[in-house]
Protein backbone atom coordinates (compact mmCIF):
# COMPACT_ATOMS: atom_id res chain seq x y z
CA UNK A 1 0.00 0.00 0.00
CA UNK A 2 2.80 2.36 1.01
CA UNK A 3 4.64 1.57 -2.20
CA UNK A 4 1.47 2.18 -4.21
CA UNK A 5 0.98 5.52 -2.46
CA UNK A 6 4.57 6.52 -3.32
CA UNK A 7 4.08 5.48 -6.91
CA UNK A 8 0.86 7.53 -7.00
CA UNK A 9 2.58 10.61 -5.56
CA UNK A 10 5.52 10.19 -7.96
CA UNK A 11 3.10 9.90 -10.89
CA UNK A 12 1.21 13.00 -9.73
CA UNK A 13 4.49 14.91 -9.46
CA UNK A 14 5.60 13.71 -12.89
CA UNK A 15 2.23 14.74 -14.33
CA UNK A 16 2.50 18.17 -12.72
CA UNK A 17 6.09 18.61 -13.99
CA UNK A 18 5.21 17.42 -17.48
CA UNK A 19 2.14 19.63 -17.43
CA UNK A 20 4.19 22.67 -16.50
CA UNK A 21 6.70 21.95 -19.25
CA UNK A 22 3.86 21.60 -21.76
CA UNK A 23 2.28 24.79 -20.40
CA UNK A 24 5.49 26.75 -20.98
CA UNK A 25 6.03 25.21 -24.41
CA UNK A 26 2.40 25.80 -25.36
CA UNK A 27 2.59 29.43 -24.30
CA UNK A 28 5.82 30.08 -26.17
CA UNK A 29 4.50 28.41 -29.28
CA UNK A 30 1.09 30.01 -29.28
CA UNK A 31 1.88 33.30 -27.61
CA UNK A 32 0.41 35.16 -30.58
CA UNK A 33 -3.07 33.98 -29.62
CA UNK A 34 -4.19 34.93 -26.15
CA UNK A 35 -7.60 35.40 -24.66
CA UNK A 36 -8.59 39.02 -24.19
CA UNK A 37 -11.50 40.02 -21.97
CA UNK A 38 -13.12 42.31 -24.54
CA UNK A 39 -12.44 40.28 -27.65
CA UNK A 40 -12.60 36.58 -28.27
CA UNK A 41 -9.04 36.34 -29.51
CA UNK A 42 -6.53 38.95 -30.47
CA UNK A 43 -3.46 38.73 -32.61
CA UNK A 44 -0.59 40.55 -31.02
CA UNK A 45 0.78 43.32 -33.22
CA UNK A 46 4.51 44.09 -33.31
CA UNK A 47 3.98 47.02 -30.98
CA UNK A 48 2.06 44.84 -28.55
CA UNK A 49 4.81 42.24 -28.54
CA UNK A 50 6.52 44.38 -25.92
CA UNK A 51 3.80 43.31 -23.55
CA UNK A 52 5.23 41.88 -20.36
CA UNK A 53 4.20 38.50 -19.06
CA UNK A 54 3.60 37.83 -15.41
CA UNK A 55 2.87 34.58 -13.66
CA UNK A 56 0.33 34.38 -10.87
CA UNK A 57 0.51 31.15 -8.89
CA UNK A 58 -2.88 30.11 -7.48
CA UNK A 59 -2.69 27.82 -4.47
CA UNK A 60 -4.90 26.79 -1.57
CA UNK A 61 -6.31 23.62 -0.05
CA UNK A 62 -8.39 21.25 -2.16
CA UNK A 63 -11.91 22.55 -2.65
CA UNK A 64 -11.03 26.15 -1.71
CA UNK A 65 -12.22 27.40 -5.10
CA UNK A 66 -9.04 27.86 -7.19
CA UNK A 67 -10.47 26.41 -10.40
CA UNK A 68 -13.72 28.31 -9.83
CA UNK A 69 -11.77 31.58 -9.58
CA UNK A 70 -9.89 30.84 -12.79
CA UNK A 71 -13.15 29.94 -14.48
CA UNK A 72 -14.73 33.17 -13.18
CA UNK A 73 -11.82 35.27 -14.44
CA UNK A 74 -11.98 33.71 -17.87
CA UNK A 75 -15.74 34.33 -18.12
CA UNK A 76 -15.96 37.99 -17.18
CA UNK A 77 -14.20 40.96 -18.66
CA UNK A 78 -13.35 44.16 -16.79
CA UNK A 79 -16.94 45.35 -16.58
CA UNK A 80 -19.02 42.64 -18.07
CA UNK A 81 -21.93 41.28 -16.12
CA UNK A 82 -22.03 37.54 -15.88
CA UNK A 83 -24.31 36.30 -18.64
CA UNK A 84 -26.80 33.50 -18.31
CA UNK A 85 -25.16 31.50 -21.08
CA UNK A 86 -21.87 31.86 -19.23
CA UNK A 87 -23.07 29.93 -16.20
CA UNK A 88 -20.13 28.28 -14.54
CA UNK A 89 -19.48 24.64 -15.24
CA UNK A 90 -19.02 22.28 -12.30
CA UNK A 91 -15.35 21.98 -11.46
CA UNK A 92 -13.45 18.79 -10.73
CA UNK A 93 -10.56 18.40 -8.31
CA UNK A 94 -7.38 19.46 -10.10
CA UNK A 95 -5.01 16.49 -10.17
CA UNK A 96 -2.07 18.35 -11.70
CA UNK A 97 -2.26 21.91 -12.85
CA UNK A 98 -4.72 24.24 -14.54
CA UNK A 99 -4.06 27.56 -16.25
CA UNK A 100 -5.54 30.52 -18.04
CA UNK A 101 -4.01 33.64 -19.57
CA UNK A 102 -5.59 37.07 -19.24
CA UNK A 103 -4.66 40.06 -21.35
CA UNK A 104 -4.73 43.43 -19.59
CA UNK A 105 -3.17 46.67 -20.86
CA UNK A 106 0.55 46.08 -21.56
CA UNK A 107 0.53 42.77 -19.74
CA UNK A 108 -0.35 39.14 -20.17
CA UNK A 109 -1.11 37.48 -16.86
CA UNK A 110 -0.64 33.72 -16.76
CA UNK A 111 -2.57 32.11 -13.90
CA UNK A 112 -1.27 28.71 -12.86
CA UNK A 113 -3.22 26.61 -10.39
CA UNK A 114 -1.64 23.58 -8.78
CA UNK A 115 -4.12 21.15 -7.23
CA UNK A 116 -4.57 21.47 -3.47
CA UNK A 117 -4.77 17.77 -2.55
CA UNK A 118 -2.50 16.67 0.29
CA UNK A 119 -0.24 14.70 -2.06
CA UNK A 120 0.35 17.75 -4.29
CA UNK A 121 1.00 20.38 -1.62
CA UNK A 122 4.62 19.28 -1.22
CA UNK A 123 5.28 20.42 -4.80
CA UNK A 124 3.76 23.90 -4.43
CA UNK A 125 6.98 25.58 -3.40
CA UNK A 126 8.75 24.27 -6.54
CA UNK A 127 6.64 26.72 -8.53
CA UNK A 128 7.32 29.81 -6.41
CA UNK A 129 10.58 30.82 -8.05
CA UNK A 130 9.07 31.73 -11.42
CA UNK A 131 6.10 33.48 -9.84
CA UNK A 132 5.42 37.21 -9.60
CA UNK A 133 2.36 37.06 -7.34
CA UNK A 134 1.04 34.32 -5.08
CA UNK A 135 -2.71 34.02 -4.74
CA UNK A 136 -3.74 31.84 -1.81
CA UNK A 137 -7.42 30.90 -1.80
CA UNK A 138 -9.17 29.92 1.41
CA UNK A 139 -12.59 28.34 1.90
CA UNK A 140 -13.88 30.76 4.55
CA UNK A 141 -16.58 28.29 5.63
CA UNK A 142 -14.14 25.42 6.26
CA UNK A 143 -13.35 26.27 9.88
CA UNK A 144 -11.98 22.80 10.60
CA UNK A 145 -9.16 23.25 8.07
CA UNK A 146 -8.28 26.90 8.60
CA UNK A 147 -5.31 25.86 10.71
CA UNK A 148 -4.04 23.62 7.89
CA UNK A 149 -4.52 26.50 5.44
CA UNK A 150 -2.60 28.74 7.83
CA UNK A 151 0.39 26.36 8.07
CA UNK A 152 0.51 25.85 4.32
CA UNK A 153 0.32 29.59 3.71
CA UNK A 154 3.07 30.38 6.22
CA UNK A 155 5.27 27.63 4.75
CA UNK A 156 5.00 29.38 1.38
CA UNK A 157 5.57 32.81 2.92
CA UNK A 158 8.73 31.49 4.57
CA UNK A 159 10.01 30.08 1.28
CA UNK A 160 9.66 33.39 -0.61
CA UNK A 161 9.94 36.35 1.76
CA UNK A 162 9.60 39.03 -0.95
CA UNK A 163 6.73 37.65 -3.00
CA UNK A 164 3.52 39.77 -3.03
CA UNK A 165 0.61 37.69 -1.72
CA UNK A 166 -3.13 38.01 -2.19
CA UNK A 167 -5.23 35.88 0.15
CA UNK A 168 -8.70 35.39 -1.30
CA UNK A 169 -11.31 34.65 1.36
CA UNK A 170 -13.67 32.63 -0.82
CA UNK A 171 -17.16 31.16 -0.17
CA UNK A 172 -18.32 34.22 1.72
CA UNK A 173 -21.86 33.31 0.60
CA UNK A 174 -21.87 30.19 2.78
CA UNK A 175 -23.63 30.21 6.13
CA UNK A 176 -21.15 30.55 8.99
CA UNK A 177 -18.29 31.68 6.75
CA UNK A 178 -15.48 33.38 8.65
CA UNK A 179 -15.43 37.14 8.24
CA UNK A 180 -12.39 39.00 6.97
CA UNK A 181 -11.30 39.94 10.48
CA UNK A 182 -11.80 36.37 11.74
CA UNK A 183 -9.69 35.12 8.85
CA UNK A 184 -6.95 37.64 9.52
CA UNK A 185 -6.72 36.19 13.00
CA UNK A 186 -7.17 32.51 12.06
CA UNK A 187 -4.47 32.74 9.38
CA UNK A 188 -2.15 34.82 11.62
CA UNK A 189 -1.84 37.48 8.96
CA UNK A 190 -1.05 40.12 11.57
CA UNK A 191 2.25 38.29 12.16
CA UNK A 192 3.39 38.79 8.56
CA UNK A 193 6.14 41.38 8.11
CA UNK A 194 4.86 44.82 7.18
CA UNK A 195 7.43 44.90 4.41
CA UNK A 196 5.63 42.23 2.47
CA UNK A 197 2.82 43.24 0.12
CA UNK A 198 -0.08 41.25 1.57
CA UNK A 199 -3.76 41.66 0.75
CA UNK A 200 -6.85 39.91 2.08
CA UNK A 201 -9.93 40.09 -0.17
CA UNK A 202 -13.40 38.58 0.09
CA UNK A 203 -14.97 36.58 -2.73
CA UNK A 204 -18.00 34.42 -3.37
CA UNK A 205 -18.35 32.26 -6.42
CA UNK A 206 -21.42 30.24 -5.55
CA UNK A 207 -22.13 28.62 -8.93
CA UNK A 208 -25.91 28.95 -8.41
CA UNK A 209 -25.89 32.57 -7.27
CA UNK A 210 -23.45 34.10 -9.74
CA UNK A 211 -25.89 34.69 -12.60
CA UNK A 212 -28.27 36.41 -10.18
CA UNK A 213 -25.69 38.41 -8.32
CA UNK A 214 -22.67 39.83 -10.08
CA UNK A 215 -20.91 40.92 -6.87
CA UNK A 216 -18.39 38.13 -6.66
CA UNK A 217 -15.34 40.13 -5.61
CA UNK A 218 -13.54 38.96 -8.74
CA UNK A 219 -13.49 42.43 -10.24
CA UNK A 220 -11.69 43.90 -7.21
CA UNK A 221 -9.37 40.90 -7.27
CA UNK A 222 -8.54 41.43 -10.93
CA UNK A 223 -8.09 45.18 -10.41
CA UNK A 224 -5.68 44.52 -7.56
CA UNK A 225 -3.65 42.06 -9.62
CA UNK A 226 -3.41 44.60 -12.41
CA UNK A 227 -1.95 47.07 -9.94
CA UNK A 228 0.55 44.53 -8.66
CA UNK A 229 1.88 43.08 -11.93
N1 LIG B 1 -20.94 28.17 -2.23
C1 LIG B 1 -19.79 28.33 -2.88
N2 LIG B 1 -19.21 27.30 -3.51
C2 LIG B 1 -18.04 27.51 -4.15
C3 LIG B 1 -17.41 28.79 -4.17
N3 LIG B 1 -16.25 28.68 -4.87
C4 LIG B 1 -16.17 27.40 -5.26
N4 LIG B 1 -17.23 26.69 -4.84
C5 LIG B 1 -17.47 25.25 -5.03
O1 LIG B 1 -16.46 24.55 -4.30
C6 LIG B 1 -16.14 23.33 -4.96
C7 LIG B 1 -14.63 23.22 -5.16
O2 LIG B 1 -14.23 24.27 -6.02
P1 LIG B 1 -12.91 24.16 -6.94
O3 LIG B 1 -12.81 25.46 -7.66
O4 LIG B 1 -12.93 22.93 -7.75
O5 LIG B 1 -11.79 24.02 -5.84
P2 LIG B 1 -10.20 23.90 -6.05
O6 LIG B 1 -9.57 24.81 -5.07
O7 LIG B 1 -9.85 24.12 -7.47
O8 LIG B 1 -9.92 22.42 -5.60
P3 LIG B 1 -8.72 21.41 -6.10
O9 LIG B 1 -8.58 21.54 -7.57
O10 LIG B 1 -9.18 20.07 -5.65
O11 LIG B 1 -7.47 21.81 -5.37
C8 LIG B 1 -16.93 23.34 -6.27
O12 LIG B 1 -18.09 22.56 -6.08
C9 LIG B 1 -17.29 24.80 -6.47
O13 LIG B 1 -18.50 24.98 -7.20
C10 LIG B 1 -18.05 29.87 -3.47
O14 LIG B 1 -17.59 31.01 -3.39
N5 LIG B 1 -19.23 29.58 -2.85
MG1 LIG C 1 -8.93 23.00 -8.91
UniProtKB/TrEMBL annotation:
The keyword Ion transport does not apply. GO terms for molecular function: GTP binding; GTPase activity; metal ion binding. The chain crosses the membrane at residues 6-30. GTP binds at residues 60-67, 116, 170-173. This is ADP ribosylation factor like GTPase 10. Keywords: GTP-binding, Magnesium, Membrane, Metal-binding, Nucleotide-binding, Transmembrane, Transmembrane helix. SMART domains: ARF, SAR. InterPro entries: Arf-like_GTPase, P-loop_NTPase, Small_GTPase_ARF/SAR. The keyword GTP-binding applies. Mg(2+) binds at residues 67, 94. PANTHER family: ADP RIBOSYLATION FACTOR LIKE GTPASE 10 (PTHR46724:SF1), ADP-RIBOSYLATION FACTOR-LIKE PROTEIN 9-RELATED (PTHR46724). Residues 68-95 are annotated as: Disordered. The lineage of its organism: Eukaryota, Metazoa, Chordata, Craniata, Vertebrata. It comes from the Eukaryota.
Amino acid sequence: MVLLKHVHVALSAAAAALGSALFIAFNSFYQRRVWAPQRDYCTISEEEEETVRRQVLVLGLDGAGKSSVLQGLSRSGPDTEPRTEQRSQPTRPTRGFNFISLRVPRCQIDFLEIGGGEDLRGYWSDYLRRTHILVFIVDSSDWSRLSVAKSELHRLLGAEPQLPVVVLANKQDKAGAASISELREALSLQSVSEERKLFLLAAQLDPDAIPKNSTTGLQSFQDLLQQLV
